[in-house]
Amino acid sequence: MLPKQRQDQIVRALRADGAGGVKVLAGKLGVSEATIRRDLEQLHAEGRLTRVYGGALAVDGGDEPFADVNAVHAEEKDRIARRAAELVTDGESVLLDIGTTALRVAQHLHGRSLTVVTSNLAVLEELQYDEQIELIVLGGFVRRSYRSLVGYLTEESLRQIHVDWLFLGTSGVRPDGRVMDSTMIEVPVKRAMINAAERVVLLADRTKFPGHGVARVCEPGELSIVVTEPDSDPATRAQLSEAGVEVVLA
């Protein structure tokens, strides 16, 4: 990978998560921590991020374009999404969170007799012509850059429904199993989704252990299942299991 490509991926990762540690970024990109430190210094000098002790913070420049985020760790997300879709039985109802992994779950639901509810405009585009799926779109304020619906109308709509499954995204899972998010405006919607679901499935690739996030979405005991990768942090997975969460490896 060329340095410019690597640095662009660092900026994308920070915009998606809000912040990133040197060790986490090195693991994501498969390079040494020394290389990441040099990249962070250069990107800081260019004004593309803010260098802090141990890592960097995203520069406040709006949400990362959905297509760019979708391209990051695409194979891993697709494995997780495929395994998550296998949990659903025909005839059930599914609530899909915002984000690119939830979109990939939708891609694996095509042709099935299901009810799908979502605030994810990319999911709407993916499933709108699938006549086997009864598709319900929540109302709300449109975040165009991240293709999501948020706000009071979204939360109020969620209070009127109850679904069999929620597939939830996250910015990070703390070592104690708490689910976090870096986008404050999305957190009330995620909490309302949890309250509307019989079973809550968290979709989290290995980079989300620990990941990042300033706002608590839920405690581990509020989750039913976590679908993740075999090489995600074993200590965090153990904490989730102790809290009664089923950990499924994709």
TrEMBL record:
InterPro entries: Carb_Metab_HTH_regulators, DeoR-like_C, DeoR_HTH, NagB/RpiA_transferase-like, Tscrpt_reg_HTH_DeoR_CS, WH-like_DNA-bd_sf, WH_DNA-bd_sf. PROSITE patterns: HTH_DEOR_1, HTH_DEOR_2. Transmembrane segments: none annotated. Gene3D superfamilies: 3.40.50.1360, Winged helix-like DNA-binding domain superfamily/Winged helix DNA-binding domain (1.10.10.10). It comes from the Bacteria. Residues 3-58 form the HTH deoR-type domain. Keywords: DNA-binding, Repressor, Transcription, Transcription regulation. One of its GO terms (molecular function) is DNA-binding transcription factor activity. Repressor of the lactose catabolism operon. Galactose-6-phosphate is the inducer. This is Lactose phosphotransferase system repressor. It comes from Kribbella speibonae.
